[in-house]
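#struct-pred

JT: dropping the chains for the assembly here, can someone run the whole complex?
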Amino acid sequence: MPSESLPRYRASMSARNDRDPWPDAWLSEDPLPEDPLPIAAEWLAEAFADGRQPSPHAVALACVDAAGDPTVRMVLVQRIEPSPGAVVFFTNRASRKGVELAGRPRAAAVFHFGPLSRQVRISGPVTETSGAESAAYFATRPIDSQIGAWASQQSEPLESRAALLAEMQRLAAQYGADLANPAPDPALPRPPHWGGYRLHAERVELWHSRPGRVHDRAEWTRRLTPAGGDPGPWTVQRLQP
Ligand SMILES: Cc1cc2nc3c(=O)[nH]c(=O)nc-3n(C[C@H](O)[C@H](O)[C@H](O)COP(=O)(O)O)c2cc1C
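RK: done, full complex below.
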């Protein structure tokens, strides 16, 4: 980055933080709430209602590969389940992330609600959604996304873009699907490699920007064994910003 652009960047960061348009009294005061998940769900709903951020349900999702190296990519969280506490996303299970999650079923995700000056971190064990749950969500997707899920061997090398588009046309003809029609086709079957994951919240951090960078941070932890089993109670502590 050219050095002359740095001062402008700093100025805009501090202008946003000092404005502090979203006071969160409950995160600044003690005692802290017992359960962070309803708050995370409310923050996501507020980010949608606020309307300034495209795709506020996008998270950076981190896993580890077979060598133990971290990997990260964006995915869309389809819902936060406040109780017992999880986020759900969908993908190709044969993709790089799918292979990594099969090898080590743990992940970390972070939401950034920039216009609301908030961040939510969630990590813990991951389980696959059931076939029925994956199929039900697949049936709601636009037809081109449904065909795309069949056509794309996600994360594999691709010879050319034209080859992928031709494969989409071939599959559309095979399934009698009209790619120009954005409506979902409930009759299109779910590809066997396509499905969802549930990231069960074992550790959650809520972060809210405060003036002077004296941000509020609090971290909730609990034990989850087995993944998806009965969660123990949350323990909460405040963290230095
Ligand atoms: C905002 C955003 C949302 C995305 N949502 C998804 C998603 O929900 N599922 C998915 O498989 N890929 C999604 N992607 C694409 C992924 O970031 C990634 O390129 C793809 O899943 C392959 O990742 P992998 O090779 O690590 O498995 C999204 C990308 C962006 C930028």
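JT: nice. The chain has a mean pLDDT of 90. The first helix runs from residue 6 to 19.
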